[in-house]
Amino acid sequence: MFPLAAPPRTLTILQVEDSAENRALVSRVLEAAGHRVVDAVDGDQALAMAEAIAPDLILMDLHLPGMDGFEVTARLKAMAPLAHVPIVAVTANVLAGNRERCLRAGCDGYIKKPIDVATFAQEVWAYYDGKQEPVAVAEPAAGWGVAETRATAICAPEPSLPVTVLIEWLDHLERAAAASFGYRRGHGSRTAIHAAKVGQQLGIRDAALATLVRGCRLHDLGKPEAEIRHRDEGAFLSSEAWHDFADHPRAGAELLAAVPGLSGEVAILHHHHERWDGKGYPDGLRGEEIPCLAQVCAVAEAFDAMVTRSTYRPDPLSVEAAAMELERCSGSQFAPRVVRAFSTLLASGRITAPQARDAEEAAGGVQ
Hints:
The protein has helices at about 20-30, 45-55, 70-75, 100-105, 120-130, 145-155, 160-180, 185-200, 205-215, 225-230, 240-245, 250-255, 265-270, 290-305, 320-330, 335-350, 360, and strands at about 10-15, 35-40, 55-60, 85-90, 110. The chain is of the alpha/beta class. Helix 2 runs parallel beside helix 3 (about 70-75) and helix 8 packs across helix 14 (about 290-305).
């Protein structure tokens, strides 16, 4: 089927992939090239199979049900008999940062889907033969104040029609969800309002501030699909539901990336659940690796989530309790500089929990 030269030897290749169609295609290509392919459909099966068959090479999908490909890779590399086995990520997830994250987890290379059937077998052999992609050294995120403004101004045009449509779409979904579940609507709007005040406190101005506001307003763009799929689970999420919700930063960023000129906003969506200690998601960034505007969004949206009623927090915290929680998590979950600025605004009364004024009215200035 694929006229390829016979490889120097037959490899036993473990393919970790939950899509039957993708498994079938990769198997056809590699078996036609003379290799043996063994399949695993999730992380647990991959760990057991790898230990049992001692493969020559492992092909790893990053987004698996349950344990994701990043964690599976890290666990495989921690097993002494398998530490030397090349692992190649094969995935359609090509957002900036994912290549570096999979390499840091232990992958030797990164092949994008859809695969090129004419070259795929040769690419796989090259990784077995010693090819290894270098991990890029992470540069600190752009600084605060003027430098941040200049860096972001290049990619922060005035709101375009697609952004306006997305905001209106989120508003309608929030209203419907609030009516169904009985929680207070306007989370995106309030997050944007809090973030704007924090941004000004930190010296963020002009185009960068506009990017911050729009990114915060849209930060949950990827969440509606998970909410619709798991609307009946309430506060007690199944493992599948948790992974669907944890995937919303990536899903939202991919959706917004289709709108030209919004890379600053895309970075906010993609990284607003990263943690200062590197234990967040989706990319496990730590400290100043996290884009500055995403650091602000993380604190603003967490505060609003704590002080408003939701499916997952039917009894909201007081402002004082939420402030204490932000301080407690400063340096672990949140950027200390952002928490200090937020605490200053709370102490002065410039940020408060929503009271009588409906968030819909406050949203009028957040577009």
